[in-house]
């Protein structure tokens, strides 16, 4: 694999990202940076999912930032990503449950949209009108819609971006007339705003916002459509009829699970991502204004926003996927650190029954992905066992009595969240992040 950055570039303490991919994460493409080990990255991200999904020229279902080269990050390391800030900049967005009309793609509507009239793959398109036929092929002016909204909504946010309200049809239409303005598309974005569809099937619904990053991680080690950089969506690439087809072995080897849609990946959390290419290639996108566990509608409120990350190399990271240290309030009840009074009661029990040592514990959340949730759970359990040098049986017990299995996204992203022996975390260089995050 070639180094994908100009070696004469000056290492920077802070990198501002204003560029986006064409929805393909390509380790052979130039990266931005390099940024210093311990430096920061700031980006104004574009909406993911809806927006890119109705923009046929984009080849991955999202529109993520150009990856950034991290000084000192080598294959086999990890990158600790401290999420310093996430702020929604969109004034409004639209979303909903989708369907894929027949004839508008080559096997996968996220990856290979086509015009069924002139048979152009990844056609250039333009907006003409409002509604679900508004995206038109430049070559033949036929509507091109790899996705339709079955039941959807347009939502606008208050000035603080803490509350949203879905609007009726006439307001959605008014917003659609200035779609790019209300969605706050960054200058480098090439997507059609989903506000052009103007859905309004459940007006007057009040919504809390809780922004997080649906995409955050490191570049896979072979070209891969961005939304498919995970075990569930990546399964759609296996044996696909388009040029991004891969084998099961390639998916397992090259993905980095940067597309998680886990609502705990928000400001204040610490994510550890695997390094599979020189320089890691940290990228981000698909900011969500809020989402319930599972993202069961398939999509949520995709928004533009500003993000600040601090990155730090973790040498000899022993895992091929991500680990998360969520905010304390995002931990399951049984996975929260023990209080002083709980520890005191435990010490009394130890003295009563002659137990010499109570092992110090710390929360950790190991990500698992696969084609379905059952397989994703097995993946997460095995990863946790590998990370901590334990048996899968022991991980099952610890996740049962000191944690939980949480659903990030259906069909196949989960978290194995539990209290792990702090000594095991120290042995792999992650104990300091647990102490930092939970004041241990």
What order do the helices and strands come in, and which of them pair?
Layout: E1 12-17, E2 24-25, E3 32-45, E4 68-70, E5 78-88, E6 92-99, E7 125-127, E8 135-137, E9 148-157, E10 163-166, H1 169-176, H2 179-183, E11 206-208, E12 212-218, E13 224-225, H3 248-254, E14 270-274, E15 280-288, E16 305-314, E17 323-325, H4 340-353, E18 361-369, H5 373-388, H6 392-401, E19 403-409, E20 413-421, H7 422-427, H8 431-438
Parallel strand pairs: 1-3, 3-4
Antiparallel strand pairs: 2-13, 3-16, 4-15, 5-14, 5-16, 6-9, 7-8, 9-10, 10-11, 12-15, 14-17, 17-18, 18-20, 19-20
Protein name: Acetamidase/formamidase family protein
Pfam family, one: FmdA_AmdA
InterPro entries: FmdA_AmdA (IPR004304)
Detailed description of the structure:
The protein has about 450 residues and is α+β, with helices and mostly antiparallel strands. Helices cover about 15% and strands about 30% of the residues. Helix 5 packs across helix 6.
Largest sheet, if any?
A: 12 strands, mixed
Oligomer: single chain
* Share of residues in helices: 10-25%
Tell me, what's the shape?
A: globular
Protein name: Acetamidase/formamidase family protein
Pfam families: FmdA_AmdA (PF03069)
InterPro entries: FmdA_AmdA
Key words describing this protein structure:
440 residues, alpha+beta, 12-stranded mixed β-sheet, 4-stranded antiparallel β-sheet, 20 strands, globular, Acetamidase/formamidase family protein
């Amino acid at each position: 694999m070639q180094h994908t950055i100009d070696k004469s570039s000056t290492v920077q303490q802070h990198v501002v990202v204003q560029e986006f991919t064409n929805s393909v994460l390509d380790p052979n493409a130039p990266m931005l940076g390099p940024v210093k080990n311990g430096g920061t990255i700031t980006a104004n991200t574009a909406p993911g999912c809806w927006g890119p999904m109705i923009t046929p020229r984009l080849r991955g279902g999202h529109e993520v930032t150009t990856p950034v080269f991290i000084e000192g990050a080598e294959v086999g390391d990890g990158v600790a990503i401290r999420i310093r800030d996430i702020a929604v900049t969109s004034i409004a967005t639209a979303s909903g449950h989708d369907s894929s009309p027949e004839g508008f793609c080559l096997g996968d509507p996220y990856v290979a949209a086509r015009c069924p009239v002139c048979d152009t793959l990844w056609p250039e398109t333009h907006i003409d009108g409002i509604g679900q036929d508004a995206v038109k092929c430049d070559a033949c002016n036929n509507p091109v819609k790899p996705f339709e909204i079955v039941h959807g909504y347009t939502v606008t946010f208050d000035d603080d971006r803490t509350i949203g309200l879905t609007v009726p049809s006439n307001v959605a239409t008014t917003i659609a007339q200035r779609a790019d303005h209300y969605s706050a598309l960054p200058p480098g974005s090439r997507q059609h705003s989903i506000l052009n569809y103007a859905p309004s099937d459940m007006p007057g619904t009040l919504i809390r916002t809780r922004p997080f990053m649906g995409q955050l991680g490191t570049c896979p080690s072979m070209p891969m459509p961005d939304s498919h950089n995970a075990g569930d969506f990546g399964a759609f690439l296996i044996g696909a009829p388009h040029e991004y087809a891969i084998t099961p072995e390639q998916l397992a080897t090259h993905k980095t699970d940067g597309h998680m849609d886990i609502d705990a990946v928000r400001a204040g959390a610490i994510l550890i991502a695997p390094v599979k290419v020189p320089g890691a290639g940290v990228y981000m996108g698909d900011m969500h204004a809020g989402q319930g566990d599972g993202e069961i509608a398939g999509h949520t409120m995709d928004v533009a926003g500003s993000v600040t990350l601090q990155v730090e190399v973790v040498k000899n990271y022993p895992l091929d996927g991500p680990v998360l240290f969520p905010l304390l309030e995002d931990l399951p009840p049984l996975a929260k650190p023990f209080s002083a009074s709980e520890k005191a009661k435990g010490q009394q029990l130890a003295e009563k029954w002659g137990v010499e040592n109570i092992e110090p514990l710390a929360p950790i959340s190991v990500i698992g992905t696969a084609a379905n949730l059952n397989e994703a759970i097995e993946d997460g359990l095995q990863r946790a066992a590998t990370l901590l040098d334990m048996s899968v049986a022991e991980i099952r017990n610890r996740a049962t009595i000191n944690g939980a299995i949480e659903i990030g996204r259906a069909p196949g992203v989960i978290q194995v969240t539990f209290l792990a022996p702090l000594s095991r975390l120290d042995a792999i260089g992650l104990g300091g992040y647990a102490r930092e995050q939970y004041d241990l």
